[in-house]
Amino acid sequence: MPATPLTAVERAPGATGRARASVVLSTGVCLPEAVISNADLERVVRTSDAWILERTGIRERRRSGAGVTTSMLAAAAGKTALDHAGLESVDAIIVATSSPDTFIPPVACLVQRRLEMASVPAFDVNAACSGFVDGLIVADGLIRAGTASTVLLIGAEALTKLVDYTDRSTCVLFGDGAGAMVLGAGDAGGILASRWGSDGSHADLIYYGPSEEYPDTGDGLRLAGKGTFRMAVEQMTELCAELCEAAGWTMDDIDVVIPHQANQRIIEAVAKRGGLSLDRFVINVDRLGNTGAASVPLAFAEAEATGRLHPGSRVLSVAFGAGATWGGFAMEWTSSPR
Ligand code: ACO
Hints:
Elements: E1 21-30, E2 35-37, H1 38-42, H2 49-56, E3 60-62, H3 70-85, E4 92-96, H4 107-114, E5 122-125, H5 131-145, E6 150-158, H6 168-171, E7 176-186, E8 190-198, E9 206-209, E10 220-223, H7 225-246, E11 256-259, H8 264-274, H9 285-288, H10 295-305, E12 314-321, E13 325-332
Parallel strand pairs: 4-5, 4-6, 11-12
Antiparallel strand pairs: 1-7, 2-3, 6-7, 8-13, 9-10, 12-13
Bound molecules: acetyl coenzyme *A.
Acetyl coenzyme *A (ACO) binds at residues 47, 51-52, 55-56, 128-129, 168-169, 172, 206, 223, 225-226, 228-229, 232, 262-263, 266, 290, 292, 320-322.
């Protein structure tokens, strides 16, 4: 019995009566220019470049400036993806984020306003670092059901605004950025299988609020590092095996793995346990840190830009995040290199 509930993988008949698949039409990114290096953090908390590098693999991360919000990053990434797809509008906008500009309205509606898009449905998904994968599973369902022909899906975070820069165990981890995809209907390839799940009994592993250790400090992102590490490795390894089987592939068939970027050591452990060589993994955690829901689309865009994705490439993407939440998908890449 699989550990994660199945999402529908059979193709629903499309409007044409032919099989309808969700394919990636384009990608886009937006990264703030300001960089926080490990040396910068050494000046703020009791830490060292050597500790951060050894325990996380992170060298630097991006930080959005004062007044720059998640919706601004999201809109910029979304605009690039729309331009690359040659589209001015889509049938739905989904933004995955845990660091919205404000509680209300949804970031997706702010993106819609910024991009002056027509009155299509726009909504947010909050599943922390798994949010983009969950958003993609929703978008895939909309496209295969024929409810939408094109979806703009964005993962965007301004996590440095939620970080408590007195908490050395978390402040070194997180960064800001946004990645986007335009998904559309195709006849073949695209998303072949997906899995998702969550277990709220682990809700205390990662949360935003006061520190249990130092209750007098303000709110911030808190993390039970070791428990999260273990669960992330177990779930992402299991997802790789389940998705591979669901797609009808062997592990040797996989060309590229795009994991959530929380920690270099987590990625290495998933590679080792899953029997996948590390050179197939796309890794940007060294330069961007953990960008939450933005990490998967940022890594996809980088893989595309650096020529690692070609029509026919077999791609696995897996994520784990607060909640606890997890999810992944197997995809046959269809876009041609730009
Ligand atoms: N610099 C120096 N020392 C530090 C730092 C730091 N920045 N942070 C912690 N330490 C110390 C600790 O105080 C501890 O010291 P002690 O032994 O004297 O008590 C020691 O280093 C070891 O700390 P651990 O927390 O056990 O270190 P660990 O090797 O587990 O690494 C880390 C911590 C990097 C957080 C790791 O556990 C991790 O990456 N966890 C998973 C993160 C993850 O998966 N996130 C995904 C979801 S996030 C989301 O959804 C928003």
